[in-house]
Amino acid sequence: MTPVETDLIIAGGGLAGASLALAVSRLVPELRVTVVENHPLAPDAAPDDYQPSYDARSTALAWGSRLIFEQLGLWPALSEHATPIRHIHVSDRGRFGATRLHAEDHRQDALGYVADNRWMGLCLVAALRETPVRWLAPAEVRGLVPAPTGVAVTVRREGRDQVVTGRCLVVADGGRSGLRETLGFRTRTEDYGQNALIANVSTSEPHRFTAYERFDESGPMALLPHGSPTRAGHQSALVWTLDDRNLAEVLALPDDDKCRRLQERFGWRLGRFTRIGACSHYPLKLVTVDEPVRPGVALIGNAAHALHPVAGQGFNLALRGLMTLVEQFRRAVDQGRDIGELSVLAAYQRQHRQDWLKTVYFSDSLIRLFGPAPAPLAGARDAGLVGLDLLPPAKRWFVRQAMGLGGRRPFFGNAGRTGREVYHDDR
């Protein structure tokens, strides 16, 4: 196959990789972008053809992520099927502690949104088809060697190897693809000893655009409003934390018994659980990479870090991180520097690491605080929830973390035309 020359190579065309490709095309249009994706692009897949599926997997989008997608011109399309979260209810099962957050108290339309992954993917691909971004799909990155202009990547495509040369490779294909390990990046893993069971459920009472975070001795459970963006329906997206034994028991139950077990854990705030859809599950681990950049290579998204889903911050953290990377690309191009220089990628890592540390601490501390605990500590945390509900400064801080506004985020003005950045510092 004929070698391909480009500037930026993105390994992975999922939500993170496609968002990065769109951000670069919008904000650093001088760069040629090539996406290498394992799965073929369906030629007939378009947002106009989208029909929501009951069993569709979804992602929680923080308010800060909405602001980023607005900057990229994607939010008008995404919002057509994004269910707003206008209220958040946090409670400790069997105890008095609880706190309630309301978007209207903070002069916002919503605290966040819930969108189907497939819908987000369709909107991203539709937007990318209007850009010069090149897609190699189905294809797979097999290896990398240094090259005079940056990196030379071996891509397996149609049963043959093809060389793609560029100035930088960004690994955005998730934490389980193996490319990260193939390239020699070392990870650190902390196993929570739990699993996340994911499913969509229906309840007899409408969700009223409320997200519930429920803690007990077994771990957290989240129910996120799902379905119509304008009508408070009866469907919610479930994230249920279970240890290995309880996971096996629940998966073996018929659906009616799954609903009864779920009712025991969650309670009756949404009435009776009437339906549970197809269940998927995965082990919960905190995965980090000590040095996620090197000359010509950077990791983003789950390839760089995987979080517990308790606070719904995984994709939102990834989105803020890739925008920080795009900010450094913009600066490098303006200054006549190579986007693959270690100093450029290290600047991205330094900025993103502060956000990462805050987000990991926020998510991890919730797991440890609301895990199994002796009675005095359990009583203290319940008092803390009540205090959070009563103390405006503490509540504002908590809301900003939940909305993805707790760290410094880059915002671009007319970067695609002027090369100038506009910053909004939310610290």
TrEMBL record:
FAD-binding domain segment(s): 5-332
Pfam families per record: FAD_binding_3
Keyword set includes Flavoprotein: yes
Pathway: Cofactor biosynthesis; ubiquinone biosynthesis
GO terms for MF: 2-octaprenyl-6-methoxyphenol hydroxylase activity; FAD binding
GO biological process, one term: ubiquinone biosynthetic process
Cofactor (UniProt): FAD
Alphabetical list of Gene3D superfamilies matching this protein: FAD/NAD(P)-binding domain
Domain of life: Bacteria
NCBIfam families to which the protein is assigned, alphabetical: PRK05732.1 (NF004356), Ubi-OHases (TIGR01988)
Similarity annotation: Belongs to the UbiH/COQ6 family.
Protein name stated in the entry: 2-octaprenyl-6-methoxyphenyl hydroxylase
Phylogenetic classification of the source organism: Bacteria, Pseudomonadati, Pseudomonadota, Gammaproteobacteria, Pseudomonadales
